[in-house]
Design brief:
- The chain has about 230 residues and is of the alpha/beta class.
- It is built from ten helices and eight strands.
- It has helices at about 15-20, 40-50, 65-85, 95-100, 115-120, 135-145, 170-175, 195-200, 210, 215-229, and strands at about 30-35, 55-60, 85-90, 105, 125-130, 150, 180-185, 205.
- An eight-stranded parallel barrel has the order 1-2-3-4-5-6-7-8, surrounded by six helices.
- Helix 8 links the parallel strand 7 and strand 8 (about 205).
- The chain is globular, with a radius of gyration of 17 Å.
- The termini are far apart.
Length: about 230
């Protein structure tokens, strides 16, 4: 475990402006997160979104339902993702990830240790960890074997309550120093995402910007942005 604190790892605020992405690093990709309500016509909406442009991963995120109900909701969405070669990631729950045979799990800071998740899920399952605005937490996650770290919220968001607001320079710093991919999350739209891509984000995690509007058009706009970048 690293002994550094974030205060000891202060960043030059201009770091992101000077950042240049290594050409060997894959380009930034889109990472969709589900709304809390995935009933009704959401299956159709998900299929339309995934068909509208390149999507690397889809995170299944529901709250206040038991595991049996969550599995019933997840299984048809998992098939839609599998048919399109999109990674299916479960939010928070290692046990649901194992039950579904999902491609990965995303852990918040209170959702368990990546090492324990790895011991349960095996070497091939992707493990992501929320790190808020903390370089210290991100390094700990990397040392614990996380496959990606997530920073945010970069912008105001109604998807979930947030108290952390990192500067884009944290993406530049992470991408410069570490090979583990980083995810930018929080209030990201096609209109405000460009600085995060330029700063070094490997993935843009988006939810409301897609599901609160026409999902096809939203994914197309993100695809155009990422293709241009």
């Amino acid at each position: 475990m690293t002994d550094f604190t974030d205060d000891e790892l202060s960043l030059d605020p201009q770091f992101a402006e000077r950042f240049q992405r290594d050409d060997k690093r894959p380009p930034c990709q889109l990472y969709l997160i589900s709304p809390l309500d995935v009933a009704g016509d959401f299956r159709g909406r998900l299929a339309r979104a995934l068909d509208a442009g390149p999507v690397a991963a889809f995170q299944f995120r529901v709250k206040d339902v038991d595991q049996h109900a969550a599995a019933r909701l997840a299984e048809p969405l998992q098939r839609i993702c599998a048919d399109r070669d999109v990674a299916f990631i479960v939010n928070d729950s290692v046990s649901l990830t194992r039950r579904l045979g999902a491609d990965g799990v995303h852990l918040g800071q209170g959702d368990g240790d990546p090492r324990e998740a790895r011991s349960i899920l095996g070497p091939s399952v992707q493990i992501g960890v929320t790190c808020h605005d903390s370089r210290h937490l991100a390094m700990e996650a990397g040392e614990a074997g996380a496959d990606y770290v997530a920073f945010g919220a970069f912008f105001p968001t109604a998807t979930k309550e947030t108290t952390h607001r990192p500067d884009p320079s944290i993406l530049s710093w992470w991408t410069t120093v570490f090979e583990v991919p980083c995810v930018a999350i929080g209030g990201i739209t096609p209109d405000n995402a460009a600085p995060l891509v330029a700063a070094g984000a490997d993935f843009l995690a988006v939810s409301g910007a897609v599901w609160n509007t026409d999902e096809t058009e939203a994914v197309r706009r993100f695809a155009a942005l990422l293709a241009g970048a």
